[in-house]
Amino acid sequence: MTPASELLDDLQWRGLVAVSTDLDALREALDAGSVTYYCGFDPTAPSLHIGNLVQILTLRRLQQAGHRPLALVGGATGLIGDPGGRTAERTLNTKETVAEWVERVRAQIEPFLSFEGENAATMVNNLDWTASLSAIDLLRDIGKHFRVNKMITKEAVSARLSSEHGISYTEFSYQILQGMDFLELYRRYGCVLQTGGSDQWGNLTAGLDLIHRVEGRSVHAFATPLVTKADGTKFGKTASGAVWLDPDMTSPYAFYQFWVNTDDRDVVNYLKVFSFRSREEIEDLEKAAAERPAAREAQRALAEELTSLVHGQAQRDAVVAASHALFGRGELGALDGATLAAALAELPSASMSRDEDGRWPSVVDLMAATGLSPSKSAARRAIAEGGAYLNNARVTDEDARPADVDLLTGQWLVLRRGKRNLAAVQAPPADAAAE
Questions:
Q1: What is the C-alpha to C-alpha distance for residues 410 and 429, in angstroms, rounded to an integer?
Q2: Could you tell me the sign of the dihedral formed by the alpha carbons of 124, 125, 131, 134, in that order?
Q3: How distant, in Å, are the alpha carbons of 256, 304, 314, 344, 391 from that of 317?
Q4: Are 36 and 67 contacting, i.e. CB atoms less than 8 angstroms apart?
Q5: What DSSP string runs through 152-198?
Q6: Tens digits of residue pLDDT in 65-83
Q7: Which of 65 and 328 is assigned the larger pLDDT?
Q8: How confident is the model at residue 85 (pLDDT cuts 50, 70, 90)?
Q9: Residue 405 gets which letter from DSSP?
């Protein structure tokens, strides 16, 4: 088991402790033996996103240090909705939808934890202890321990109270349910530590207060900071939306590229938060980023590690191969269709069709159509200067046209101008083109 001082020092060095209960008391508890701890995840979407990854990896770090994780998927709280971070009432999903999402979220968390050994993880669902609870029992046994004057001071509640939308009793009661979760896990599993994001601190302390009132026991909590970006834009968002863990919602290639494109100002912080590399390894990458920023060594290390963690080694190898191939450092023809399509989906693109003579458009036309060149004359200049490529082969003839044999997986062309400017062209499927 990792000594508590070493574990907490590492968490603090990584910037993973934004706020906490008494750290000396927590250190003492962690040193006394394996501690049971939990973190909750509400199924408010069919997939978790990379913001949730901070909590999942924190669960993993504590387990690797010798402690026992409980990963809670909120089948009950997911039916209610946390008011935090929202200016208006959340739209309630159907019970059937939430039940489906519970299973999807559970399946995303499980691969990060070990379910064997002395500190084996356990998955829990708070619907198990709330579904049969009557309103009278909730009010008598739990509600009486909550003070409204204190509840309305919680940041998530006070922000909504002062907004034009206000807050419903449903969302106002969310902290009662989360507090009850901690009490129930304390009773069932001896859970004495809860982790979560700093935006959840009000809900975390609700559980601390409830256990103290009901059981007379002091337990622990710490919250990780919200991850931010140096340019002021929201972390985990791209032009196409959130970066999801589900490969059908964010492809492994798009996931990999998100991390590769990390701002130089953010990459060391992200390595600390998301990577399992040692302090020395991260400091070496920090030095490399400062001395050779164009090489993007730190970004590639981050992208490869996280793609492996979330999508597996095989997918990581496939997207790295695709990334290399797109920029002329590998064979485009060796890529499988799904990986190629996912990679090209991230590029400016255009479709093409044959002319009346059965020919495909010229490379000049395609470079202009995709926006790779601002005009046909600019495309001709790029070709004349040796800076235009079709499927990584330099184009030397201004009148060049692709042939059927050039179509990757029978449908795609990759255009490149210079070293890093890319575009994709899609041809109709063969059966459609034949009609």
A1: 7
A2: positive
A3: 11, 9, 5, 17, 20
A4: yes
A5: TTSHHHHHHHTSSS---HHHHTHHHHHHHHHHHHHHHH---EEEEEG
A6: 999 999 999 999 999 888 7
A7: 65
A8: low
A9: G
Tokens of 5: 């001082």
- Is it the case that residue 154 has pLDDT exceeding 60? yes
Q: What is the pLDDT of residue 305?
A: 98
Residue 9: enclosing H or E segment and its boundaries?
helix 4-13
- Residues 370/348, Cβ–Cβ less than 8 Å: yes
Neighbours of 51 (CB within 10 A): 17
Sheet of 388-390: strands edge to edge?
349-351, 421-426, 412-417, 388-390, 393-394
Long-range contacts of 245-248 (CB under 8 A, 24+ apart): 245/47, 245/48, 245/49, 245/50, 245/52, 245/53, 245/108, 245/310, 246/46, 246/47, 246/48, 246/104, 246/108, 247/311, 247/315
- Residue that has been written with the tokens 């998301």 in this structure: 274
Which residues partner with 20 through β-bridges? 222
User: What tokens appear for 264 in the block?
Assistant: 């130089």
Q: How far apart are the first and last CA of the chain?
A: 67
367 alpha carbon, distance to own chain's centre:
34
pLDDT tens across 130-150, in order? 999 998 999 898 988 888 888
Angle between helices 337-344 and 313-326 (to 10 degrees): 60
Beta bridge partners of 222: 20, 195
Residue pair 329/389 in contact (Cβ under 8 Å)? The answer is no
- 246 Cβ neighbours under 8 A, 6+ residues apart: 46, 47, 48, 104, 108
CA distance 271 to 276: 8
Report the alpha-carbon distance of residue 43 to residue 175 in Å, rounded: 16
Q: In terms of C-beta density within 10 A (0-12 exposed, 13-18 middle, 19 or more buried), how is residue 248 classed?
A: exposed
Question: So what's the pLDDT on residue 87?
Answer: 65
The backbone region for 250, taken as left when phi is positive above 0, alpha when psi lies in -120 to 50, beta otherwise, is: beta
- Bridge-partner residues for 388, per DSSP? 417
Give, to the nearest 10 degrees, the angle between helix 50-64 and helix 297-311. Answer: 80
CA distance 122 to 120: 7
Rounded Cα gap, residues 165 and 89, in angstroms: 7
CA geometry: angle 27, 286, 60, nearest 5 deg: 40
Q: Letter for the amino acid at 108?
A: Q
